[in-house]
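#struct-queue
[09:14] JT: dropping the first one here, sequence first, then the C-alpha cells:
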Amino acid sequence: MGKHSSPESATFWRSALIVGASRLGVVLLILLVALGFWRLVIRRDEPEPPPEEIPGEESGSLPGIDLPPDTSPTPPAAGQGRIQVLNGSGVAQKLSGAEAKLEQAGYEVVARANTSRPYPATTVFFQPGSQEGADAVVTLLGVGVVQPAPDSLDESIPIAVVIGADYPG
C-alpha cells in the first residue's frame, strides 16, 4: 500500500477531507440546479399569489360614496391641505392631471409615487380627523371613494389620493 493509505497519517486525513469536500460541492451544485429548474419550469404554471389587500377593500371593488348634491364640501383655501398622490392607474398623464387640479385648488402635494398594484377606482384615504377633507378631494376630482388610511401610509400626511383607472385625467 501507498503512504496515503494509513489512517494514522495526517496526509490520509487531508486527502479524505479534500475528496469529501469536493463530493459535497458536487451534490450542492446538483441540488441548486434542480431547484432552479423546478422554480423556472415546474412552478411557472402556478398562479401568482394575490396582491396584499388594503383594509376595507372587498373583491376588488370599492363602495362609492353618496353625497347630497347641495351639501358638497368645498376644498380648503390655498396652502391649507397637505396631500400625497399615488398613481394606481398606470398612466402618468392621469397622475399629472390630478396633481395639477389639486395644486390649483390649494393643496400642497408633498409626496408622489406609483402603487404596487393597479386600482380600478380612484380612492382617497384619510387619517383620523381628515374625512371631511377626503370628501372634498372626491368632490374636486369628480370621482372616487373614501376609505380610512391603512397603517402603511404616512400618518403625517392627512390625505392620500390613489388615482385609479376610472379617473378621466
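[09:21] JT: and here's the second one, same format:
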Amino acid sequence: MIKVLVTGASGQLGQCFKKFASRFPELDFTFCTSQDLDITQFGVVSAFLRKNEFDYCINCAAYTAVEQAEKEQEMAYLVNGEAVKNLAELCSEYGITLIHFSTDYVFDGKKSAPYNEEEDTDPLNVYGASKLLGEDYIKNHLEEYFIFRTSWLYSDIGNNFLNTIRKKIEQGEPLNITTTQQGTPTNAYDLACYVLELVAEGNTNYGIYHYSNLGEGTWYDFAKEILSLSGKQGEINLNENNDFITLAERPAYSVLSKNKTLRTFKRPISSWKESLARLYKGDDL
C-alpha cells in the first residue's frame, strides 16, 4: 500500500481529494485538517511524521483569500511560505515525496500568451508572493517533489466563484462581472483526480507543472457559462463590469500553458467548459 498524507483536508481541494479516495484502493490515506495537524508548527509536524510512515504528502493547506492577504500579510506568508518550508524540510528528512499546489498569480500577467513553467515569475500581490515563497522553499530543500500551479479553482464545495454565482442566480440577483482578467477556470475535482492517478502509478517525473483546464476566458465568460447551464439566461441580467476595483492587484492575463504537463504525463485534460458542464450536471462525482 502506498501511504498518503493529505494536509489541509477541510479546504475545498482537500475535500475533493477525500471524495475521490475510494477510487484508489491501492492508496492508504490519512486526512488531516489544520486542527489535526498544524503545519505552521515544525515540532508538531516532526513528531507526527516520526510516529507515522508516509510515502507522499499532498499539501492542500493554503491561505487563499487574495484580498484579505493584503491586510493579513504575516498570516499569508506563514501558511503559504513558512509552513511549506516545514513540510519541505521534514519530507526531505523522512524520505517523503511532497505534492504542493501553487497559483497562476506568481506571474504579473503582462503577457498575452500562456505562461510556461520556466518563465520568470513576478507576483503583483501578497497572495502570489507568499505562494512563490513556498515554491522556493520546496525547490531549496527537496529533490522529490511535484508543484502544480493552478488557476481559478472551483467545485461544489465551499466559497468559490461557481457557488457564488449559482447563489446569485437562485436569488434572482443581477450579475455584474469583470472582463479585465483573462485566465482559466479549473475544476478542483479534475485536479485531484489527475494528481491521484500520478501517485497511484508511482510517477517520478518530479518538478514544477501547470494544471488548469484547457481554454481561457474572463470572469465574465465564466459567469456567462454558469448562467447558460442554469437555464435562466432570460431571467437574470448579466452585465460587463470594466471598473471592478480590488485591494489586491491581479494579473490581467494569467493563462497557464499545459504543454509540459501533457507531454510528460500523457494524460488528457478537459476543457474548462466541458468540465464545468460535467460538474454542474453532477456527473462523475
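[09:30] RK: nice, looked through the second one.
[09:31] RK: The longest strand covers residues 97-103.
[09:31] JT: good to know. The two ends are 24 Å apart (CA to CA).
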